[in-house]
């Protein structure tokens, strides 16, 4: 495309709530796109607790965060809903029936209505402040999530961070990588006791080399191909490690950020909505899930699901003004290819 997308509804946020809202829109023959700042769908469930069981999803006595997202993705698969991932929506202009959204990657989305399912805001990895970082990110030399373990086969890795993610990945990739350096600015790691025990074992066996207390200082290489990571201590002692990749796990930054600038009423970092429709103070803009508030609101996934259904029904007359919407059950309508 030329970076311009035209649709009925722009859904901002592909967490559990945004994903289910996409299903509800699709069932009402309303086109939509899902936009998320993260590289993957799933919001908090996928980014913060993929392996934690959730016990209060109706009809699932227990389901892990990642499994819930996988099921939601399967539920919308028949509709081929476009996803724009790794993109933060920065601007929202226009009015009911004709909105224009702009992303940080320069795309422009034209939509008749907007559903904000932004949770606690746009997450993004905390990136280390290193010169020339972007060139190394573009080639995959520097990464913040592990998407394909196979990328690291036979490679020398510098893994930076002192928490569970850094440790878990160091332990998991040691079977694959040629060499792993684990860099942290303190001597002590803060992680699950079992991981700490496994780390000690791996260090003893020479499978992981602990490099502490060091911080990242600079990246060395050419045209985005990493050769060495330079480290420094607080006292100024420096050290260079040979490396094919730097995996940095410094946590996720959250930021309601741009959403706060779009002129809707707000209560702290939430958006008040009319409970029966989830419409915000801006006509044609709806908010659902953690970001939406009204008296009696529960910040639970199940409530976000029902808000997605209400918003989709409230949007129907905006998209299909000439068609009366008769309430139907999903059974009478069916889902394509299912
Ligand atoms: P989120 O999951 O927060 O997703 C919002 C998405 O919007 C994010 O991916 C973000 O990147 C994106 N976004 C935001 N702004 C922008 C922008 N400007 N441009 C592009 N993208 C943007 N709930 C339960 O019901 N049961 C539980 O057992 C449970 N356990 C939990 C355990 C933990 C540790 C945590 C942290 C939460 C738990 N929750 C639980 C809460 C639940 O995860 C949230 O209620 C749910 O994730 C909200 O979904 P959401 O889709 O509204 O928002």
Briefly summarize what is shown.
This protein is α/β, with parallel strands linked by helices and 338 residues long. The chain is 24% helix and 28% strand. The mean pLDDT is 93.
Plain-language structure description:
Its cofactor is FAD. Its EC number is 1.18.1.2. Keywords: FAD, Flavoprotein, NADP, Oxidoreductase. Homodimer. This protein is an alpha/beta fold and 338 residues long. It has two domains: 202 residues, FAD/NAD(P)-binding domain (3-Layer(bba) Sandwich); 124 residues, FAD/NAD(P)-binding domain, CATH 3.50.50.60. Helix content is 24%, strand content 28%. The strands form seven sheets. The chain has a five-stranded parallel sheet, covered by helices on one side. Strand 4 and strand 5 form a beta hairpin. Helix 1 packs parallel to helix 7. The structure holds flavin-adenine dinucleotide. Flavin-adenine dinucleotide binds next to helix 1, strand 3, helix 2, strand 11 and helix 7.
- Main sheet strand line-up: 6-3-2-10-22
Chain-averaged pLDDT: 93
Number of alpha- plus pi-helical segments: 8
| CATH structural fold name of the largest domain | FAD/NAD(P)-binding domain
- How many DSSP E strands? 23
* CATH evolutionary superfamily of the largest domain: FAD/NAD(P)-binding domain
Counting helices, strands and paired strands, the structural category is alpha/beta
Q: What level of helicity do the residues show?
A: 10-25%
């Amino acid at each position: 495309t030329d970076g311009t997308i035209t649709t009925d509804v722009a859904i901002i946020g592909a967490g559990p709530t945004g994903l289910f809202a996409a299903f509800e829109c699709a069932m009402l023959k309303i086109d939509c796109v899902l936009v998320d700042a993260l590289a993957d769908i799933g919001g908090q469930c996928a980014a913060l607790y993929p392996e934690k069981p959730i016990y209060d999803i109706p009809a699932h006595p227990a389901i892990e965060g990642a499994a819930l997202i996988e099921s939601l993705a399967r539920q919308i698969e028949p509709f081929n809903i476009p996803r724009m991932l790794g993109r933060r929506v920065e601007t929202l202009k226009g009015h009911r029936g004709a909105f224009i959204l702009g992303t940080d990657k320069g795309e422009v989305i034209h939509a008749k209505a907007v559903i904000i399912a932004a949770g606690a805001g746009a997450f993004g990895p905390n990136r280390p402040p290193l010169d020339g970082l972007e060139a190394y990110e573009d080639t995959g030399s520097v990464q913040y999530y592990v998407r394909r373990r196979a990328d690291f086969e036979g490679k020398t890795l510098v893994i930076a961070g002192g928490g569970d993610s850094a440790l878990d990945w160091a332990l998991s990739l040691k079977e694959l990588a040629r060499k792993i350096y684990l860099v942290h600015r303190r001597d002590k790691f803060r992680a699950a006791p079992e991981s700490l025990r496994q780390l000690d074992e791996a260090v003893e066996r020479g499978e992981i080399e602990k490099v502490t207390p060091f911080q990242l200082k600079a990246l060395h290489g050419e045209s985005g191909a990493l050769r060495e990571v330079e480290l420094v201590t607080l006292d100024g002692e420096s050290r260079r490690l040979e490396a094919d990749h730097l995996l940095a796990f410094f946590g996720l930054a959250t930021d309601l950020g741009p959403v706060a600038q779009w002129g809707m009423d707000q209560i702290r970092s939430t958006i008040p909505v009319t409970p029966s429709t989830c419409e915000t103070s801006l006509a044609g803009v709806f908010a659902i899930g953690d970001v939406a508030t009204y008296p009696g609101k529960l910040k639970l996934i199940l409530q976000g699901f029902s808000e997605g259904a209400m918003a989709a029904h409230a949007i129907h007359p905006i998209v299909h003004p000439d068609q009366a919407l008769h309430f139907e059950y999903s059974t009478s309508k069916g889902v394509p290819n299912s």
